[in-house]
Amino acid sequence: MDRRGHPSLLSKLGLSVLTCNSALAVYQSHNDPASVAFVIASYGAMALLFLVLRKLETSSADREGRRKILAAVWALTTLLTAMFASKVAPLMPQFVAVQVWLMAAATAVGGFLAFFANL
């Protein structure tokens, strides 16, 4: 975010790279509807995450409003973590697949505790 409240060049570049990468992934997997759906869902969740994080940066909301925004951030990051773990785990040996899911769960729980536990 620059001083005028506009997205920074780096944010625009990141979203542009994400868009191009997603478009190429859809193009290359156009014969596999499940892969296309995965790419579109991942892109949608990442784009929503960009928007929610921007709202968090610019928001002057009270404590309850910020908690709602943080809940959206946590939900989107947990969704993305589970989506990517569901793609990676089947490619691994069973022991490693269990570790992938344990790390995904630990990330979700850790994010929840970081955002919402008043320690």
Automatic annotation (TrEMBL):
The keyword Membrane applies. The keyword Membrane applies. Keywords: Membrane, Transmembrane, Transmembrane helix. The chain crosses the membrane at residues 35-53, 69-89, 95-117. It comes from the Eukaryota. PANTHER family: OS05G0181300 PROTEIN, OS06G0147000 PROTEIN. This is Uncharacterized protein. It comes from Panicum virgatum (Blackwell switchgrass). The lineage of its organism: Eukaryota, Viridiplantae, Streptophyta, Embryophyta, Tracheophyta.
